[in-house]
Structures are given as C-alpha cells and as structure tokens.
Amino acid sequence: MHKVVLHSSHMTLRKKLNLFVFLFLFALIFSCGSSEETSTPESVNTEVPSETSTNQIPENTHDETPPESQQTEVISFGERILPIIESSCARCHIGDAPGTTHAFLGTASDVSANAFAVAAVVEAEIMPPWPASNLSVPFEHDWSLSQEDRDAVIQWTRSGGSIDIDPSTKITASEEAHHLVDYDQEIFPIGNYDGEKGQTDEYRCFIYDPQLTERKYLIGYEFIPDQTEVVHHLVGYRVPKELREAANLKNFSDGQGGWSCFGGTGLGGNQIGTLNQMITLWGPGTGAVEYHHGHGLEMNPGDFFVMQIHYHFDVEAPADNSSFRAKWSADESITPVELIQYFAPAEIPCSTSETGPLCDRDASLIDRLASYDGQGVQADMILDLCGYSPEDFSHMTDGYASSTCDQPARFSGTIVSVLGHQHGIGTTFRMTLNPDTPKERILLDIPKWDFEWQFNYDPIEEISIKPSDIIRLECTWDRSLRPPDIEPRYVLWADGSDDEMCFGIIMGTRT
Ligand code: HEC
Q1: Ligand 1 centroid from CA 336, angstroms
Q2: Alpha carbon of 469 to ligand 1 centroid (Å)
Q3: What secondary structure letter does DSSP report for 500?
Q4: Which residues contact 476 (CB under 8 A, 6 or more apart)?
C-alpha cells in the first residue's frame, strides 16, 4: 500500500482517494468474507434511531453489527470518533471551509455517510494534512492524528460506521482557522492568470507590491484565494527592490499576468543567504499568520512580494485575483523576524535501469543552465558549501538518493517557525539542531514528504539557538516518483519542477 502512494505523486488526491477507497473496500470485503451486508457502501451505515441518546454505551450497538465483526472492538462514535473529527478535520470540512466541496462533515450523519472515504484517507495518512511527525519538537495547532486515533477511525468504519448520538448533531471545530479581523492593506497581483480547464499543475509567480514609502514591519498577513476551486497552494517570497526590474521583465512575458516559475521566483539573486526568501506557505485551511506581539518582518521601500500560486485547472474558472492582506507597523521598536536558510545537496543520479544523454551530470547541468538563462541552478554552489563533490553521490544508482549537510546555525536568537522544502520526488526531510549531542532537537521531521502540503511550523517551546550550534539537514528522494513520460536525467538542485532541492528555513528573532 505504501508503495502505491509513492508511485502516485502525480495523481490527484481524488484519484489517490478512489484507489484507497477501492483498496479499503477490498480489505473490508476480504476481512468480512463474502458477507452481503458489507459488499456495498450503503448498507454499512446502520440506520440509527433518532431517539438514540448521546450517552448510549457501545454495547447497545453491538447487536446490530454483523457476526463477522464480533471479534472487533465496537467504537463509540460520540465518545471516540466525534472528538477526532472536531479536533482534526472540522476546521476544513464544515461550513464553507476549503475541504467541504470534497467531503462535507457538517453533522454526525454526514460523517457516517462518508465513513468509507474518511477511513480511507485516514488509513492512507492523506488526511488530516500534517506531514510533520511527532519526532519533531511539538508545534502549535498540531491537528495530526495519533496512531490510536487512526486505528479508532478505521475500526469504527470496519464495524459499521454507525453513530450512537443524534444524527443531526452539528460538528464544530475545536480550533477554527484563524482569520485577520482587521488589516491595513489588501494587495492584488499586477496582472491575472486565466488558465484552461484540463491544465494541471500550473505554477505561476505574481508581483504583489505593497508600495511602501518607508520601512515597515509586516506583523500579520493572510492570503485570500479568489478562485478557490483552482487555487491549490501558495509559496510567498519577500523580494528586495533590486529585483523589481527583473520581475517587471518577466511579468506578462507570455501574454498573461505573472510568469511560470517553480522552485523559486526565477528572478535570480541566488547568492547563498538571499536565495529564495521564502516567507510563507499557504494551503487550504491555513488561515492568517500573526507574529507574536512585537515581532515583524522588515520590508523597505521598493521591496515587494512574489506569490507563487499553484493552480490545478480541474474546472473552468475565471481569471484568478487572489489577494494578500497585510497588517503593518512602522514602530521601530519591533523585533524583526529573520530568515536563516540551511541547505543540503540534491544529487540524484539516474538509476542503472535508466539511460540517456542527460544521465551525465555535466550534460544535465548545462541543459538546466541553458533553460534558466544561467539563473536558478544552485547545484554546484551547494555542493561547495557542504564540502561534497558529485562523486560522493555517484554510487546512488538504485533509484534512491539521499544527502545530508551539517552547517553552523549562524544566528543567535529564538525560533519563531521552521519549514522544509523539496520538490516532487522528495520522500523524507529532517532538520536537526545539534545532532548527536545531548542537546539534540529534531526541529522538523517529515517522514513522507508531500509537496502539496507545506506549512510553516511554529514550535510551542522557546527554542534558542546560537551561532556555533549545528544544523543538520537530511533529505531523501525516490526517482520512481518522476512522471514516467519524461526523459531520464541526472536530477540536481535547481528551480524547475523536474529539479530538486533540500533546504530548511528557521525564522527567528535575534537576541
Ligand atoms: C487543513 C485542512 C484540512 C484538514 C485539517 C482536513 N482536510 Fe480533508 N481535505 C482538505 C482539502 C483541501 C481536500 C481536497 C483535496 C485537496 O485539496 O488536497 C480534502 C479532501 C478530503 C477528502 C477527499 C474527498 C474526495 O473525494 O477527494 C476526505 C474524505 C477528507 N478530506 C477527509 C478528512 C478527514 C477525515 C479529516 C480529519 C481526519 C480531514 N479531511 C482533515 C482539507 C483538510
């Protein structure tokens, strides 16, 4: 099952889900022999009499379950499942939240009616989307499920997916997505993009200009998707005024607003340190970000944002005009939030079963440089930084590759948030503070990298770092995740969708 997911990175979630529902049904039918009751989804949701009381004990539903499932524990919806749905799903699946068009979980009976899909996505660990594992330091707003919770949901569905509370009971979110109640500015892109139905995975960069006339600190913000059916996720960059000319040249260069971009803004400025000033990641359900009181992101006159929006044109939609709401402070006593970036190489040679001219590293590098006008290919720079040469990776010819790099933290302060970044064939990511010492802390562990769900993670604890601390990055890749129809190539660190990256960012406040 694991393998199936790995090979399907280019499947849409719906396709993945259909597959999982299928596998789940298959497993269910298999585990219940040829029982007629379990052969169709409809018959599994046992009708619950409306007089059922909320504190009904699980034994009361036991009689209604088929004899095959007697050996499985009967799970109370009200006591066990409802709290899980309310803490980990409801923020995105009730009201007009972003997941409701895919699965509406507004009432207890909606959950029961969707029991199969719910168990399938939970078992496949597609939902709730929270790629960080609990090896990481604890994070705010962690809506992930424990293994016990996942097992309970699966078990509940297997034993009938019935509800022991009033079916019309409204599901409420334990924690709703946070939205900005007030803001100083709503910024719109300079130029819009209108994609064609059927065009999947369009990554488009737009200029969002706050038109600052004095230094200000961004103290809160929220990305407001406009065409919510096609806007998939977003990577936001802070870009210095020196790159505005380059951005203007790219904007509308293919006739529509914005420009095609992937791993970065495509604007250059790629010296280590300024590379990819990624400041925010947004996915459905993310909501607003407000820095703790007294913190803000410094922006100077002329500085602007580039928002890279990932579109999926599964449906016809008018031109998108997503906006960025900003809360500013001009107060010079604000403590600036700084970004420190850490890298590891991405050197992923062709496997022994692949051949072609671009399997040669030099040829691949030259080809990449040519397609990005010399910009956006960071591979050699990062090898240098980490003290490696391509030979160190040349033995990784079984289709899997990995890399690691230790570097000084170069910063004295407190961590505000952390993020990790890879592209589509990334499989695992880890960023560790002071590895192999008694002070080791895993700042971010992502055991199953998912390009579609990238978040900024905010540690609950105050974690201090000092310049001599060591940050270790570790990434792994699986070449079988490349789309099958593209030419074999030595994949390396660059901006494109068929290139890879491995970097982490710590946002922190200096002390
Ligand atoms: C952060 C928001 C978020 C959370 C939390 C979340 N979902 Fe989702 N869910 C989505 C979005 C958005 C989609 C649509 C697919 C996509 O964009 O990836 C989706 C899709 C689904 C689907 C697939 C429907 C289909 O037919 O494709 C199911 C089922 C689902 N979610 C169930 C759950 C369950 C169960 C939980 C909790 C255990 C949960 N979700 C938590 C946002 C969320």
Answers
A1: 35
A2: 38
A3: B
A4: 400, 401, 402, 426, 427, 428
pLDDT tens column, 263-305 = 788 887 654 445 457 888 888 888 899 998 899 999 999 999 9
**Torsion, CA 438, CA 444, CA 448, CA 452, rounded to 10:** -170
Q: Which of 17, 96, 102, 201 to mutate to test the pocket of ligand 1 (most atoms within 8 A of CB)?
A: 102
- For the cut 50, the answer to whether the pLDDT of residue 46 exceeds it is no
Q: Is the CB of 82 under 6 A from ligand 1?
A: no
Tell me the pLDDT tens digit for each residue of 52-106. Answer: 333 433 444 444 444 444 455 789 999 999 999 999 999 999 988 888 989 999 9
What's the gap in Å between 7 CA and the centre of ligand 1?
21
Domains of the chain, start order:
2-158 (no CATH), 185-333 (2.60.120.310), 340-510 (2.60.120)
CA 343–ligand 1 middle distance (angstroms): 31
Q: Are strands 335-343 and 295-299 parallel, antiparallel or unpaired?
A: parallel
Beta carbon of 102 within 6 Å of any ligand 1 atom = yes
